[in-house]
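User: Fold this; tokens only.

Assistant: Input:
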Amino acid sequence: MVSTRKSPGSYGEVTEQKRLNDAREEGIPWKKWGPYLSERQWGTVREDYSKDGNAWDYFTHDQSRSRAYRWGEDGIAGISDDKQQLCFALALWNGRDPILKERMFGLTNSEANHGEDVKEYYFYLDSTPTHSYMKYLYKYPQAEYPYRDLVETNRRRSREEMEYELLDTGIFDEDRYFDIFVEYAKADPEDMLVRISIHNRGPETAQLHVLPTLWFRNTWSWGDGKPKPVLSQIDENKIHASHPKLGDYTLQCEGAAELLFTENESNASRLWGQPNPSPYVKDAFHQYVISGARDAVNPSKSGTKAAAHYVLEVPAGGSKDVRLRLSPKPTTGAFGTFDRIFNSRLADANEFYVRIIPKQLSEDERRVYRQAVAGMLWSKQHYYFDLDRWLTEHDAHPLLGSNKGNCRNADWFHMLNDDVISMPDKWEYPWYAAWDLAFHTISLSLVDFDFAKDQLLLMLRNLYAHPNGQIPAYEWNFGDVNPPVHAWATLFLYRIETELGRSDLRFLERSFHGLMLNFNWWVNRKDPEGRNVFAGGFLGLDNIGVFDRSAPLPTGGHLDQADGTAWMAFYCLCMLEIALILTEYDIMYQEIAARFLEHFVWITYAMDRIGVSHDEMWDSEDGFFYDLLHFPNGDATRLKIRSMVGLLPLCAATVFEPGTLSKYPHLMELIAIFRERHPEVAKKIATADDPNIGGYLGRRLASVCNKQKLQRILAYLLDEKEFLSPYGIRSLSKYHLDHPFVFDLGGQEYKVQYLPAESNTGMFGGNSNWRGPIWMPVNGLIIRGLLQMYPFYGDDFKVECPTGSGNYLTLYEVAKEINRRLSSIFLRDANGQRPVYGGTKKFQDDPHWRDYILFYEYFHGDNGAGLGASHQTGWTGLIARGLDLFARLSAEMVLSAPKTAVAAMTREQVAGQDV
């Protein structure tokens, strides 16, 4: 099958869109350079060579300035090429800190009362999809950074107490800090201009050491004979970089800066008390600037790490700029056209977002939208991990006679990851997570379809997916299980691009074949008894259960998971839809479509069989789905916790236009055979082909929830005393605040209680909480489910929203209301306050803080305050898609064309363009 693409593309002559088209169609490397450095490489699994697998303690922040990384690099506001061979980032010293600030500081999992947490303030303000323009802000205190205070105070606090943040230390009092803006602009794909603007927000002149740093990732110290690249001074303000693969580059530094050189190699003397092979080591600039050790840097002006050392006196309320240019060849008059190029690239970025962002949005909504997308684009990272090599170095390779059998990820020796990947959070989660990534693509597709599609395909490639079909979860345990949402994301992207005139069937079919392998893995591994009910472990919902769902149950026996089973029903429907699309081009897919429809029917039936049974997930008395605990003696009991586990079945819904299935005779023949063989199942389940059940305009609905189930679940979901928060849908019902679920096992009490903020347990590290807070991805899927069911039920079907209010809404209106509540987390309210920042006055009131948005991991179930990872724009970036969707998507559009409504909305977005 051949992709049908149009050129110049969906956005006509918009300059940035032309760059995207040129990158895709002409191979022009506009994306070769980007923000591909991590915010944290220390404390990762890749760098862990310990015996006990304690990655946090094996490679610490204190060691990171002196110890060469094996698998990647990190830095402040950094960029690199797409293989992270040559890196550039910022280093700073305020004259008071005990160490040179080369990377973000944060607490490890054991140091903090709620798990690992970055303790810095930085913001991803802007980026185009080709990174032709980017902007970043770091707030650097002028007083000594309180490293010890942050560690010791947080360590003393219990899980019931709030975290101790950098603002709480008082270090920003009297505004004694620098706002450091770092901007990048590309003159061409490999000619990068850098502007560092330092603003003194304090009342007095303050000195700042600024060290823009260029270095090579260390690829030569690991015994495989790779040649060593070199940096050298070629003029008083130029650094020449020569790399055997990357080629030659020159960094030109404006003004009177001293050029410093050393090696990106470990300081073995400081770390381990061993002699250094070279006197010039990774932490040389720290020694030179802070300790005054003149002999720490190489007087011959060469090495593998270099910096331009600027010492600036910045007046109170004033600013100073540092300008640099990195390009393959020195540019004559490098700074003569500098400002013009910057202005041009910023204009390109503005032009692009004016076209992309709906005009219906308010100024504040546009600000949130653009910063959300910027966060998505800044969160790209080159991720390198050769498991075959890593396991061999650990003496744990299962095919090489290893004597170390407890090493993590030993079954994944086939893996070789060496790509730019969208990260959840480049400090707290500087490694990909499979289900996060699928959500990332929904927002990334607003600006870059090609990158979004490549990310989905990446996880299905042979060098990522396991030979048995499993998609890798995350580096702490690639074999863990994430919810299967890749098929949904694939279908979403395909439909939008098709409506834009670029029907990429090659992408759809490639994805489908990889997804079929993964689907089979689920069926074979997570439903071993063949009962069409699924487990899966924590499935991304961390501490949502009364037990750790990824560990052996303290009761013995096993767990049937309502969410795992609902995810598989959802998976079936997405695969069914893809198979039907492919059937239009190849009739062989009819048989496969029938298979997925049959799977869906059996799974739905297993969740609620004929009659009243106590060993199924649907509780007809409560009107809710629960996990089912099976004891070793054969007994079973429902774990009656009203949580997101019981709401996820709403997501497994797909509407079909009249006659969709009847177009395929062989498919209808297979359905008829199934009906004849299993009449009791067919009678119980209302599916797309049922001639007796029709919705609005004669449509058919395949859904886990029939009308009665839908009404009963929505009564809980839309109850403000249960799931409906002013800021979205809670992950656990507020009912459990006063009515905690308690399971007594031999005198030991296991309890689940509503916790709207941080977790009070150490389950899954204690750094996230699914017992009350609002999580953007599952809210997005609930909205998707409602929008799927609305064109079936139409405007005549209404539900009370909120429950008990006397106000009745259609399913479209309910979806829109949930999205409004989610959006309000980030937007200024009537008092000018953003709920995301809670009671933090600096963020709420200060003009230099209040319009910079952080996209947290999850949000307080009652007041909307941001919690968890502070830069998880990844899936929280879905807010941009939500703002976009409901600014353009009317109820009439959904009713008239349910399958293409979102895509048609995107066509409206580019109306009048060359589509």
